[in-house]
Amino acid sequence: MSDAPDGLRSYTVRLELSDEPGELLRTLEPIANNGGNLLSIFHERGNLTPRGRIPVEVDLEAAPSRFEEIVDALREAGVNVIQAGQERYSEEVTVLLVGHLVETDLSDTLSQLQERNGAVVDLALTAPEGSEDVSSARLRLKTESGAVSSTLDAVRSVAAEKDLHVVEPLAPGGEA
Amino acid sequence: MDLAIMGTGTVGSSVAELAADYGHRVTGMANVASAAIDPTGIDVKAALDRQNIEGEAALGDADPDAVLDADYDALVEVTPVTLGDAQPGFGHVRAALERDRHVVLANKGPMAERFADVRDLERASEGEVRFEATVAGAIPVLSTIEDYSPATIQAARGVLNGTANFILSRMAAEGLGYDHVLAEAQDLGVAETDPAFDVEGTDAALKCVILANVLAECERTYTLDDATVEGIKSVPGSALDLASEDGRTIRLIGEVVDGEVRVGPRLVPEHSELAVTGTTNIVQLDTDNAGRLNLSGRGAGGPETASAILADVERLPN
């Protein structure tokens, strides 16, 4: 679970808004008024939902006890909440794995990572010499706020078991 | 100042050649086979010409160890790096300090492997030890840390090995494999015939260990055994391609953060200051009061490293 102070956890809420002035502000008020701390807002202006609305993804931090209140307040305010609380990941980390990825069962590698910490949200694999030779994979993992280093520990231990090399990002604080 | 130079390879020769320009005199110089000693000043050009044409034994008529007992104000230690007990470099440092002489090192061995021993000897001596040239050649990393005060620096990281960086940046730019680029680097003289010291990360790790020792201000000391080190041989071209698709690249980065020393291939944003190309080095310092400092430049080379040594000589008390 999150290491954030005061038992705060990160949540992602997916909403859809009609394209009208003031709509975004109207949406954010119930969050702030109920003790939610906004982390980021991703306003997908270029996309429309099947109902012709604009999808918005809001990352926020809140105490677990307050989160239900926030979602209820949003619904009371007439905001269409598509998804709430199912994603508790707010940080991303990208790593490369190098080695015999295919022969060491890539899907098992991914599910082990998922089990230990973090969700693999994106995978790119390249095996220019064929699947029996050394290949490389780029993994984008989502993780809880403050849990990047334990996610990297999980990556290292899975890699060590399968004799894979990890190209890590810089230590926390070092992202240039 | 009068200088005695232990080691007459690329760096030692450059120090000897440039000393006069900085107002200093070379009174002793030694390689493994022979030494030249003259308390009124050696004819450096003649001695190095003889060494280049006739071999090391022609540098001079004296015994190499006799230089340690000759007349000089500062000993310049530029013999090859050795690990473990860091000999004979450490013995040279001890001999000079026990005679109350100053020591300036480019040799990383004593400062990485026997930092506490060197500091103990220094405390008991009238002489002072400086070692700017051990980390990132011409780049004034250690004097910057000294000026800012080690206690105000939270982290140091950087690209500290030009050979590994040349190989990674060529692989990324040309889509070539490791072996191909290594061969090219050897042809160009960027990589040694035996490149292990550079490509396995040992050289960068020694520099990070020295940085860690300086930042820890003797509250604890580090050696190579305290560092987690991985080289670049396991990085295939395909990994660089995948990184690049994502706006990133791979560099051999050394980091000193929270008392941990790590060296390994790391993903860095393509446009980050750390993504230097070719043989350029960079060191980033995260400071309490001045934000992030980026110091970059030439991390190796004869005159480049000699300039750091001669800058150290300037900083010595008279």
UniProtKB/TrEMBL annotation, chain A:
What domain of life? Archaea
Q: Where is the ACT domain?
A: 12-90
Q: Give the species.
A: Halococcoides cellulosivorans
InterPro entries hit by this protein: ACT-like_dom_sf (IPR045865), ACT_dom (IPR002912), ACT_ThrD-II-like (IPR044561)
Q: What's the protein name?
A: Amino acid-binding protein
UniProtKB/TrEMBL annotation, chain B:
Alphabetically ordered keywords of this record: Amino-acid biosynthesis, Methionine biosynthesis, NADP, Oxidoreductase, Threonine biosynthesis
Catalytic EC class: oxidoreductase
Keyword NADP attributed? yes
Where, by residue number, is the active site?
A: 207
Under Enzyme Commission nomenclature, its number is 1.1.1.3
- At the top level of its lineage, which domain of life is listed? Archaea
Q: Which residues form a coiled coil?
A: none
Give the record's GO biological process terms: methionine biosynthetic process; threonine biosynthetic process
Q: Which residues bind NADPH?
A: 108
Residue sites binding L-homoserine per the record: 192
Q: Tell me which residues bind NADP(+).
A: 7-12
Among its keywords, does the record have Nucleus? no
Gene3D superfamilies, alphabetized: Dihydrodipicolinate Reductase, domain 2, NAD(P)-binding Rossmann-like Domain
Q: Which SUPFAM superfamilies match?
A: Glyceraldehyde-3-phosphate dehydrogenase-like, C-terminal domain, NAD(P)-binding Rossmann-fold domains
InterPro entries in the cross-refs: Asp/hSer_DH_NAD-bd (IPR005106), HDH_cat (IPR001342), HDH_CS (IPR019811), HDH_short (IPR022697), NAD(P)-bd_dom_sf (IPR036291)
- Kindly give the Pfam families that the UniProt entry links to this protein: Homoserine_dh, NAD_binding_3
Q: Which family does it belong to?
A: Belongs to the homoserine dehydrogenase family.
Q: What is this protein called?
A: Homoserine dehydrogenase
